[in-house]
Each structure stands twice: as C-alpha cells, then as structure tokens.
Write a structure and sequence with these properties.
It comes from Aythya fuligula (Tufted duck). The chain crosses the membrane at residues 43-62, 68-88, 109-128, 170-189, 209-226, 238-263, 388-406, 445-470, 550-576. Keywords: Membrane, Transmembrane, Transmembrane helix. By secondary structure, the chain is mostly helical. Among the domains are: 26-150, no CATH class; 367-435, no CATH class; 459-567, no CATH class. It contains 32 helices and six strands. The strands form two sheets. The chain has a three-stranded antiparallel beta sheet. Helix 8 (154-192) packs across helix 23 (450-475). The radius of gyration is 31 Å and the shape is globular.
C-alpha cells in the first residue's frame, strides 16, 4: 500500500512539474517509465544533449573547407559519437513514450532519418576519400534537424511552426508583390531600354529584362538607392517620378503589408499555441489532483502532509519558509487539506519567484545605535547602498591600485586609468532611465524578450547553418583574400579576373567569401543587414553564373522578409502585453497572505538592495531598514520584480483566466490536436459533446 502511494506521488509530481515548465510530452505512467521520465528531464541530460548538438554543428569549423583543419578521421569519430548520443537520447524517449505516439511523432522520424543519412554520407565520403575522389558532404545540411526536433527545442519548433502557418498568407502577398515588380520592370524596359543610357561603370542601363527585375528588387530593399536611378534621372528629371512611384508601391506599401500579414498570422497562431499550453497545464494539474485526492465529506481534497511531500518532490530547492508560505496560501483557512481549486494553482505558485529574506541588524546599530542612526551615518549609507554605485566605487578603488602598480610601466598611465573610471561613472545615468515609468516599460519589455531573442537566435543559427553550407559548396575558392602588399596575380580582383573593375573588387570585399564556415557566417550577417547585398550577389554571380543571384534573393526572403518580420511581430506583441500588464490572481493572493502574516517588505525598501542578484527562492541576509524606520528581525518575503516575467507566461495567464477552475477540460489527446478555430473553452466543450 505504501509503495503504491509512493508511486502515485511520484507520478503526480511528474504531472505538476510538466505543468510548471509547460512540457507536453505524453509519457507512460508505469513506475519504471515515470522514473525514466524524471531522468529524461534531468538538467544534466538536457545539457549533455545540447552540448553534442552544438558540437555536431561546430564540426563544420574543422571540416573541409575548414577554419581550423583537423584530420578527417578525427572529425568523423566525433560525428559518430554525436550520432550515437542522439540515438541514445531518441531511444530513451521511446522508452517513456507510448509506441503509437512515438511513431506518429514527425520529429522522431526526422531524427532517425537524419542519423541514417549522416552515417550513409559519412561512409560514402570516407570510401571515396580513400581513392582520392572528391565528393560533397551533402548530409551536413541536415545537422540543424537535431537542434530543431529534440524535445528540448520546443521553442524553436514553435517559431518554425509560426513560419509554416504564416507562409500561405505571405504567399498571396508575395505573388502580388512579384506581379507589381514584373510590371514595373517591363515599364522600365520600355522607358529606358532604347535610350542607350549607361551606368556609372559604363555598363548598359536597363536593357536586359532579368537584370532590371533584379535591380528593382534590390531597390525595394533600398540597398542601391539612389544609384540605380541616377542614369535615368540625369537624362530627364521627369523619370524620377517612375522610381518614386515604384518605391511608394513596393517598398512602403508591400513591405508594410508583409509585416501586417506576418504579425496578424503570427499573433493568431501564437495565441493558439499559448492557449494549448494553458489547457495542457490545467489538465495535468487535474490529473495530479485525481491521483492524490481523498474524500473530506463530499469534497475531494489533498491532505496537507501529502501536499508537502509533493512540493518537496517538485521543488526540492525552495526553503522551508517558502514552502510554508505556499501552504498557507493554498490552505487559507488552515483546515489541514487543499481543495481542487487551490491545488490547480500550485504550478502557478511555484512559477512565481518569491524571495525569502532574513532581516538582521547592522553590528554598528547594535553596538553604537546613536551614531549609526545619526544623520551623517544615514547620508553615508545612502551614498553607498546602491549596487551600481558600489560597483563604481569598487572600480575606482581597483583603478587606483592598478595606477599605483603600473606607474612605472609605459603601457598605461594614470590618465588612462582615470579615463576608464570616468567612463564607468557615466553609466550611472542608466538609473535615470529606470526611474521614469514610460522608460521602465521599455526596459521591462527588453528584459522580457531576452528568452525569445535566444529562441530567434536558435532559429537564425539554423538558417545560417543551412545557407552557409550551401554557400560553401557553391562558392568555395571562387574569391580569395590577399594582403594589401601582395604581388599575387589578380590580387586586386580577389584572385579572380572575372571581378576586374567590379564594384565587389573596388569595394575591397575580397574577405567576404564562402571559403570556410566562419567567413560564410560573416557574409550572411552582412546580407541580413541588407546594405550592399546586391554588390555581393553580383560579385559571386560574376565568378560563377548569373543564376547564383537566386541564392542571395532566397536568403533575403527567408531571413529578412520572414524571420525578421516575425521577430518584429513578437516585439510588438511584447509591448502590447507589457502596457496592459496587471498582477495575476495568484500573485495577488501571495502578496495578500504575506501582508496578513506581517512578513512583507515594501518595494522602495528593497529596490536598491542585493536581492536581484539571486532571483531564485533562496534565503538571504538583509541589512536593516533604510533611514530611521525599523523592521522586526526574522523572515520576510517579496515577490520578484515583474520585469523578469516572460511574454509567453503573460499570454498564457490571459488564456488561463478563460478556464473555469471546476472544469477538467479536454483530454490530453484532444488538447494536442486543438484546432486554431477553438477560441474558447466553451467551443471545446461543444466539440467534445458532439
């Protein structure tokens, strides 16, 4: 009996942990599978998986064409090791997931196919290498699949799903945009093609239709403005009207339409996924409650002792005082049990970062209270209390010591050291920004989007890796960089006579090439910035073939038009959420209970203290009250600053408000198949009833 209760507690803790961290992995509920599930979600296992994913991606730095060349045997052994780790992780996942769910999951199939393709390609490449036959490592383009498809990367998958779901609407706008571009290109051919005009480089101006299409596409990005217009403008000022009309229609109207369509669809699908997470969390908390419930009269409840055991399993690192605070909130009337409504809020309670502090008096306040509380003492303490000020003072002290130490050397002088200190003191102006409410909203939003910036950083990494590998295969060795004093043939033309008198060579862009993985990333970053991207496209087209421009156009469409616009959409949504931010019901309950217990502390007392150094629920020592106010010794609590909430959490809270606490909601399978049209719980209920 005791063993069965322990197994139920372990399973309930798994459900609560999933609800807390928004995991939606369907796992088996047998005791062995639950223990394997705990191991699968352990931070060490996740860290090892990410390490080998990035190790596998970084192999491109050491493989031909390499930044730091390593023997083929070394890189191949590392790749095989990575693939074995991936296979082991996938096998572990198969052990905890029902068989029918595992084989229906597309991401598992993608991982298996990627492993098989990588091993096959590695074997073929190695065999051909033995006979000195040059071949292509075509499977390297599949390496980002591991970053996308493992369960740990659900945020990146969500971003890709947003792109996939947005593509149909973008396609319609893109087709209209292409129609407009082709029509303007045809008009340009008719207007300027027979004028015998020339560019500044002496080349024919607007006489080839495909080149006109490319030049006008570049004009949409403003990268060649006003250069592309000048030959026609010099011929007649009236021709400027053509380019003005083109820019208004295509740059301002169509590009704004792209952003509007991306934002509208991104917001719709984001809210659908967040709503799905909210239903999933609610359902998992109901499952955990059903495992632990007992009857108290006619009411199902969870006993206090059982609740404490559960919280210790789910959050073993929180302090005892923090755990008791959560119990007092869940069992407000101290009945000795927690009802269903309060239990369902446990995941939210654990997600709210409550700081536990120990208040202690300063030794000087105990030994010399009159001196410590004097106006002079208060003034000195107010001067040095702020963390940022302390950092500046510490830096100044360090600079003084360095100045004394290095005085006899010629590397540094006292003025240089003082300049560094003065620069650091200028940074104190950041406090002014944080003291203004409207500025604080902006700062909060910037902090809130940091996790999402990491997600889009992963998304960008995937796109960069794919395009970098393709670029190396297409353009490797076509352009070379030579030092300024080099006497090598065609050094001024980047080692290729096809670039003679080209903008690429005259701009000294020779170091921007696809000769290794690092250089490829730099080129792609420059293409993302957009400026002069047409010079790169023309340069690489000159050394290969004109269709090579399609590579650069494709990168611009994927990275700049789609991904950057989705990132802008998220920032817009983040600002809207931040401006409408209010405290959640759970946060209000925590703060109310803290004040009822007389264990609260005011925001203005703590805002400049060391509390933000460790936002986790740990116990800290806090020096006595600022000014002449006094605080009782003992424990106090404070909810962490709202600036550390993520936008996803705020959106999820919005949808959780729509779910009645007594409603158990749809099953886990129904939640996973939630259609975009299901906009409310009532809609779901009606669908289930049918």
């Amino acid at each position: 009996m005791a063993e069965a209760a322990s197994e139920e507690l372990l399973l309930a803790a798994a459900f609560v942990s999933d609800a807390q961290y928004n995991r939606n992995i369907p796992f088996k509920t047998s005791p062995q599978a639950v223990r394997l599930y705990y191991l699968y979600n352990h931070w060490i296992m996740r860290t090892v998986t990410y390490f080998f994913i990035f190790l596998n991606l970084s192999l491109a730095v050491f493989e031909e064409p390499a930044v730091y060349p390593l023997p083929f045997l070394a890189t191949s052994l590392v790749e095989v090791l990575c693939l074995l780790v991936f296979f082991g992780r996938l096998t572990h996942f198969a052990k905890i997931t029902p068989r029918n769910v595992f084989w229906k999951d597309t991401k598992n199939i993608c991982i298996m196919v990627a492993i098989l393709l990588s091993l096959t390609d590695l074997a073929i490449y190695g065999a051909l290498r033995i006979y000195n036959i040059k071949s292509i490592r075509w499977s390297r383009i599949a390496r980002p699949i591991f970053l996308i498809n493992f369960a740990e990367s659900r945020q990146i998958r969500r971003a890709f799903r947003s792109i996939r779901n947005t593509l149909p609407e973008i396609t319609y706008v893109f087709l209209l945009f292409m129609f407009s571009l082709l029509m303007f290109s045809l008009m340009a051919l008719k207007l300027f093609g027979e004028r015998n005009l020339q560019t500044a480089e002496g080349l024919p101006y607007f006489r080839n239709y495909l080149e006109i299409v490319f030049d006008l596409y570049v004009l949409v990005t403003t990268a060649n403005s006003p250069d592309v217009m000048m030959p026609a403008f010099d011929f007649s000022s009236w021709y400027a009207l053509f380019f003005i009309a083109f820019v208004i229609v295509n740059t301002y109207i169509f590009m704004s339409l792209f952003l509007a369509v991306v934002y509208n669809n991104y917001k719709k699908h984001l809210k659908n996924e967040i709503r799905q997470l909210a239903y999933m969390k609610h359902r998992k908390m109901i499952e955990a409650f059903n495992l632990l419930k007992e009857e108290e009269g006619a009411q199902p409840v969870v006993r206090e002792a059982r609740w404490k055991q559960l919280v210790k399993l789910v959050a073993p690192d929180i302090s005892n005082s923090h755990r008791e605070l959560l119990l007092r909130i869940s069992d407000d009337e101290q009945k000795g049990f927690i009802d269903k409504k309060s239990f369902v809020q446990l995941a939210d309670l654990l997600n709210i970062q409550v700081i536990t502090l120990k208040i202690r008096s300063h030794p000087l306040g105990q030994w010399m209270p009159r001196i410590y509380k004097s106006s002079v003492s208060q003034f000195l303490r107010s001067m040095v209390r702020h963390r940022f000020d302390t950092l500046i003072i510490f830096a100044a002290l360090t600079a003084t010591i360095l100045n004394t130490t290095l005085k006899s050397t010629t590397m540094y002088n006292s003025q240089q050291i003082l300049d560094i200190v003065f620069i650091l003191r200028v940074l104190r102006l950041i406090r002014i920004v944080d003291s203004i409410q409207r500025f604080r909203v902006i700062m909060n939003t910037l902090i809130n989007i940091v996790p999402t910036m990491l997600t889009f950083g992963g998304l960008t990494l995937v796109v960069y890796c794919i395009f970098a590998i393709i670029g190396m295969e297409l353009f490797h060795g076509k352009i070379q960089f030579f030092p300024a004093n080099s006497n090598a043939p065609y050094a001024l033309e980047c080692g290729n006579p096809a670039l003679k008198d080209s903008l690429f060579a005259r701009g000294k862009y020779c170091k921007n090439n696809f000769n290794n993985f690092a250089s490829s990333f730099i080129v792609l970053m420059e293409l993302t910035v957009v400026n002069q991207w047409h010079v790169f496209a023309s340069g690489f087209a000159n050394v290969t073939a004109q269709p090579a421009k399609l590579y650069f156009i494709a990168f611009h469409i994927v990275m700049v038009i789609i991904i950057v616009n989705i990132f802008v959409s998220f920032i817009l949504e983040a600002f809207f959420v931040e401006y409408s931010l209010e405290k959640s019901e759970v946060e209000t309950a925590i703060e109310r209970k803290i004040q009822e217990l007389g264990m609260g502390v005011q925001e203005e007392v703590l805002q400049d203290e060391q509390l933000l150094d460790n936002m986790e629920s740990a116990e800290h020592d806090l020096e006595g009250e600022v000014g002449t106010k006094t605080q009782p010794r003992g424990l106090v609590f404070k909810i962490a600053s709202k600036r550390y909430r993520t936008v996803d959490a705020l959106l999820q809270r919005m949808f959780e408000a729509e779910i009645p606490p007594e409603d158990e909601g749809p099953s886990l399978e129904e939640i996973l198949n939630l259609p975009p049209a299901a906009a409310s719980p009532s809609h779901l209920t009606s669908e289930r009833a049918v």
